[in-house]
Amino acid sequence: MTAGRNRGGARRAAWLPLAPVLTLYAIQFVVPMALVAVTSFRRHESAGEMGGFTTDNFAKVLQDPYYLGMLGRSLALAGETALLTAVLGYPIAYALARGPRWLKVVLLVVVMVPLMTSSVVRSFGWMVLFARDGIFSTLAGPLGDGPAGLMYTSTGVLLATAHVLLPFMVLTLYGVLDRLNPTLVQASMNLGASRTGTFLRITLPLSMNGVVAGMLLVFATATSAFVTPQLIGGTRYRVAATEIYEQSINLLNWPLASAMAVLLVAVALLTMAVYTRLSRDSGASGATGIIG
Amino acid sequence: MTRRLLSWAESAVLPVVVTVLVAFLAAPLVVLVATAFTQTPYLSFPPDGFTLRWFEGVLSDPTWRAAAWNSLIIAAMSVGVAAVVGAPAAIVLARRGVRFAPSLTLLIMIPIMVPSIMYVLGLMLGYNELDVSVPTWGIVLALAVLTTPYLVRTLMAALEQLDPALEEAALSLGASRLRIWVEILLPNVAKSFFSGVSLAFILAFDELVVPLFLAGPDVPTLPVRIYSSVAYNVDPSVAAVSSLLVLVSALVAVLSARDNLRKPTTRKDGAPDGGA
């Protein structure tokens, strides 16, 4: 155990190694967050000018159908992405946990390459696929709006966002599936259950914690996804995060942008709080990574 | 007979599904690499003809080179800052050297739970309040906050997994505390630390939101430059740059997968840090 644990002086000195990180966080993280919180209550006078304090920004965001729709769209996108990544991620994670070694390597590479590629590049790839007269509009015509392809549509944004976040889901699920005791499956098969029956009655229920943890993680990340909706959705399919960019960078309405950001952070932190509690209980900790 | 047919169907479902999903994961990246070879002056998939001129153009274009250089320098500096502030914290927290260590660990993880758009907006407001344009080190520090959690977590996990017997044996054989750290503990976690640093570097290198909000096109990093090309005037040279980035990630991924294969047990927590 650590030396000097019982003496007051040494105790205080033990905090010293934490000083740099706490200082960095205070200046670069706490202060900016506080600034956003304060700004969300300022009055917007004109572009880049702010007046006294008011709650108008929140009233506007939560009542004006335009902004409310934007928030709703962000939450819907996040929910759909969480569901889609769970459905798509489960088979990959299952094969990763149970498959032969060569398959593990292949799958690991296929999951890791997108994870380590900038989401700008990945969204760009989807833009090429979704383009008007691109192969996707030919192959998946009925899904999109005919020959116009999937650009600027909710389906397009959903598919691309799911692609960006799928690796996190796979890694979270893999962590849980890999830890499942294989003798349970063998016992079930020995007792005459079919593969499907064993999967539905043993494997799936036992990995449900991981599914929920992965969905929460993806949900929290997707609510504030910026890059993919910006590139695939453009101005025609705006979500909260892209509207924050528009309001703060182009229109210089900082109070409104701040109010939207505060609401997004509230959603993300609530989700992450549930996630942290859950993963602590089930041991399904893991891919708390956010590349959005 | 039906039973056998059923079990055959059962065993065929997973391979088919997994193949389709692998195609889904690979599709946008494969498409980019393919379009980068097209002879047409616009993006076309499937590519029309074969040429290397987009790659040649990109590699000799000073603006793309400057963007790549900016990205490398900024990512390296921010990971450097993250390592300097993160490593001491990780060591103390892994050893439960202070009170409230679990809560402090959670606190250090918060930047990856908060949407980066929130505090980047705050930083922008802050620099605006001070009436200064964002300096390059401002981007470095913002990215350091974003990457510190990954570094701390990787290093803490490695330290916590170390067998305490190692340290006890060294102590009972009369080694000093310093010597234990330098000769036993640090060499044992060096590999995990390196993989944490690599992951942090990749994240910082790929990050768009931070440089886009803080500097815009003034200090174009590679993702910012790609973003503005894609959003305003896209041509196959952007696909060429993107393919080069995909190639780099593929190399790193293959190396780390090979590494995982060699180890008899893979990491169990499903964290991406196992193979960065």
TrEMBL record, chain A:
The keyword Transmembrane applies. It is found in: Cell membrane. Pfam families: BPD_transp_1. Keywords: Cell membrane, Membrane, Transmembrane, Transmembrane helix, Transport. Residues 71-275 form the ABC transmembrane type-1 domain. PROSITE patterns: ABC_TM1. Coiled coil: none annotated. One of its GO terms (biological process) is transmembrane transport. CDD domains: TM_PBP2 (cd06261). It is a multi-pass membrane protein. InterPro entries: MetI-like, MetI-like_sf. SUPFAM superfamilies: MetI-like (SSF161098). The chain crosses the membrane at residues 21-41, 75-93, 105-129, 149-177, 198-220, 254-275. GO terms for cellular component: plasma membrane. Gene3D superfamilies: MetI-like. Belongs to the binding-protein-dependent transport system permease family. CysTW subfamily. This is ABC transporter permease.
UniProtKB/TrEMBL annotation, chain B:
Residues 68-256 form the ABC transmembrane type-1 domain. It comes from the Bacteria. GO terms for cellular component: plasma membrane. Keywords: Cell inner membrane, Cell membrane, Membrane, Transmembrane, Transmembrane helix, Transport. Its main location: membrane. SUPFAM superfamilies: MetI-like. It is found in: Cell inner membrane; Cell membrane. It is a multi-pass membrane protein. GO terms for biological process: transmembrane transport. The chain crosses the membrane at residues 12-37, 72-94, 106-128, 134-152, 193-216, 236-257. The keyword Membrane applies. The keyword Signal does not apply. Belongs to the binding-protein-dependent transport system permease family. This is ABC transporter permease.
